[in-house]
């Protein structure tokens, strides 16, 4: 396994500016990402009080069902005694969802280890599972690669209800078939049987999307003590009830501040990621497992579809008596994390960075300090097969990420064209056109009126020439199918659908090739969160 750190040619303006020393974007955050910032944030946390014993007990009770390793137990003990956390999170995707879920967890673990050494204090890694999210269509599929082409693989069950991932029951038979189909696309290796049996076993022991996600993630990261918690876990919801009350009490001013900050973000030339409105309560109401966004209107919190209409006092009562009936959105989730956890740093992707850039006024309104935002590691995995193909085709990964594979493929296809066939067809077509001209001239002098018929007949023969040309070109290209598939394999593995690999493929595609030690080996590499893109040849 080899690590190379490259400058990413795929740029995100906001992320690029965040890594810049003097960009205006830093005014939207509490801290720049610096060594000094971690010391300052740690000192701030040590002057605050957290319910660490209760929090550790809740996380321990959540994780018991999934298995607590020795290192996880040690981290729980440290949290109970007042350790701070590095936290990141993601939706509960099938087969962990896209690779960036795993990359977030790796980033969290490595950053926690780094800061533990620098601060000489316990810093534990934590993964916040957004089991409250209800966009099942976003998490019910994955991608594989067959014959050099990207293939979408979906879980067959569908629901019209807006149920949360943590309350959506899995169809065991459909899930098993989904897993078998995906692994069939991966192909058979020495690692397939054990890996497939493990995944199928976890599927059998899962009732919901969140169960399956937690079992797989815990299996991958248990040696590294990654703490995990589902946002919908009822004991945690009860733990949060006072924090929900604060979000309700300050609801209007939070929304107003976010709208104003997002407008400022737009004025600086950045995208406006939330499209916030001052009427949005930024809280969901849960009814029979479904999630309904509340809006403020006339002093009440409402959702017409759910027939929900609460005064502020009634919603506060729900928060106190049934907090499991409430849920956060992209605005209030970071605020809830800050109130509930001793967050040293939050690890997120480019999309989350954009959301967070709108939130400083909301933190200020609750007299909270925005934690350090740590951009997750961006990683591309290169198999030995594709590494050899890159060398053979005289391409680099940067070439692939900048679209040069298509250019090289087009040049190759042009180079193998059968020019003699092309010239022969062109000559035949030219002869036909000359003959039509002669016939047209003769008919006009003979006072025939068949111009439309001639034109129709000529067009028919031209289409036949075009059909013949395309068929012959296709047959010629098929002789070079292997070489063409090699170009497509390079593109599909490294930059599938013109997107980073980590946004489509799940980790099991690479575990199937490399083995279950892949995660452990990745965590041994000297990777640090930075502006660099991590290129790893397996």
Main sheet record: 5 strands, parallel
Q: Can you list the strand order of the major beta sheet?
A: 6-3-2-12-13
User: Fraction of residues in helices?
Assistant: 40-55%
Mean pLDDT: 93
Number of strands: 15
Any idea what the radius of gyration is? 29 Å
What class do helices, strands and sheet pairing give? alpha/beta
Function: Involved in bacillithiol (BSH) biosynthesis. May catalyze the last step of the pathway, the addition of cysteine to glucosamine malate (GlcN-Mal) to generate BSH.
Domain Bacillithiol biosynthesis BshC N-terminal Rossmann-like: 1-377
Coiled coil: 418-445
Keywords: Coiled coil, Ligase
Would you mind describing this structure in some detail?
Involved in bacillithiol (BSH) biosynthesis. May catalyze the last step of the pathway, the addition of cysteine to glucosamine malate (GlcN-Mal) to generate BSH. Residues 418-445 form a coiled coil. With 538 residues, this protein is α/β, with parallel strands linked by helices. Among the domains are: 237-332, no CATH class; 404-494. It is 51% helix and 15% strand. It has 23 helices and 15 strands. A hairpin with a 2-residue loop joins strand 4 and strand 5 (149-154). The radius of gyration is 29 Å and the shape is elongated. The mean pLDDT is 93.
């Amino acid at each position: 396994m080899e690590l190379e750190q490259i400058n990413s040619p795929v740029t995100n303006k906001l992320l690029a500016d965040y890594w810049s020393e003097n960009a205006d974007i830093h005014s939207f955050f509490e801290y720049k990402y610096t060594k000094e910032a971690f010391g300052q944030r740690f000192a701030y946390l040590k002057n605050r009080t957290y319910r660490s014993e209760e929090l550790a007990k809740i996380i321990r009770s959540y994780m018991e069902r999934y298995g607590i390793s020795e290192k996880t137990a040690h981290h729980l003990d440290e949290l109970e005694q007042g350790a701070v956390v590095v936290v990141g999170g993601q939706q509960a995707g099938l087969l962990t969802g896209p690779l960036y879920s795993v990359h977030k967890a790796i980033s969290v673990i490595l950053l926690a280890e780094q800061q533990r050494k620098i601060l000489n204090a316990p810093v534990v890694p934590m993964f916040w599972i957004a089991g409250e999210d209800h966009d099942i269509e976003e998490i019910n599929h994955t991608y594989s690669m067959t014959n050099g082409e990207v293939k979408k693989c979906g879980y067959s069950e569908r629901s019209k209800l807006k149920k949360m991932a943590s309350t959506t029951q899995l169809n065991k038979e459909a899930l098993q078939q989904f897993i078998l189909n995906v692994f069939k696309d991966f192909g058979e290796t020495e690692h397939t049987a054990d890996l497939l049996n493990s995944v199928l076993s976890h599927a059998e022991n899962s009732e919901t999307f969140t169960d399956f996600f937690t079992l797989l993630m815990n299996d991958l990261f248990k040696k590294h003590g990654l703490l995990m918690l589902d946002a919908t876990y009822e004991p945690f919801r009860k733990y949060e009830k006072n924090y929900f009350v604060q979000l309700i009490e300050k609801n209007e001013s939070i929304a107003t501040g976010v709208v104003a900050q997002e407008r400022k973000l737009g004025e600086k030339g950045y995208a406006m990621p939330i499209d916030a409105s001052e009427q949005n309560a930024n809280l969901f109401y849960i009814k029979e497992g479904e999630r309904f966004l509340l809006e403020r209107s006339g002093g009440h919190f409402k959702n017409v579809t759910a027939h929900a209409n609460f005064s502020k006092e009634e919603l506060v009562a729900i928060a106190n008596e049934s907090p499991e009936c409430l849920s956060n959105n992209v605005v209030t989730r970071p605020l809830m994390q800050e109130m509930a956890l001793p967050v040293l740093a939050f690890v997120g992707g480019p999309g989350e960075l954009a959301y967070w850039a709108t939130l400083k006024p909301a933190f200020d309104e609750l007299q909270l300090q925005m934690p350090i935002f740590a951009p997750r590691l961006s990683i591309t995995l290169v198999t030995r097969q594709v590494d050899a193909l890159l060398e053979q085709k005289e391409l680099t990964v940067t070439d692939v990420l900048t679209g040069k594979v298509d250019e090289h493929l087009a040049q190759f296809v042009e180079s193998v064209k059968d020019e003699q066939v092309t010239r022969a067809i062109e000559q035949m077509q030219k002869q036909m056109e000359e003959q039509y001209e002669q016939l047209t001239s003769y008919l006009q002098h003979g006072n025939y009126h068949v111009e439309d018929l001639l034109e129709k007949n000529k067009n028919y023969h031209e289409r036949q020439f075009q059909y013949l040309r395309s068929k012959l070109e296709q047959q010629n290209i098929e002789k070079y199918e292997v070489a063409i598939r090699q170009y497509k394999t390079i593109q599909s593995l490294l930059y599938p659908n013109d997107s980073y690999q980590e946004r489509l493929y799940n980790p099991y595609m690479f575990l199937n090739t490399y083995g279950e030690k892949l995660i452990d080996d990745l965590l041994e590499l000297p990777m640090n969160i930075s502006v660099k893109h991590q290129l790893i040849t397996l």
